Request: fold
Amino acid sequence: MYEGFEIWSFLVGLPLALVIVSIVLLINRKIGKKERLFDERYKRIHQQARSISWGVTAAAILIAWMIVMIVEGPRLAFFILTGIWVTHMMSYLIGAVIASSKN
Reply:
């Protein structure tokens, strides 16, 4: 089915890539803290960006959900999108509970 795809190369490369990305993020974070790049303004900007991103993602999932229902009906794609929607909403609920307990 996937003639050019080597699963073992993928399974070795994926953890290696995750380790490299983790090291780069750790170094970036350490340098950013030394230069005070992560101040209140930075946090506020990224908080607003995440809020907008969350709203756009919710709308995209709902639109994709409707398209899948119209085109395929209740098959595998519908249940996968339903699971993504439930996960999306549960993460919002958990985030809201955590945020309200801190304030």
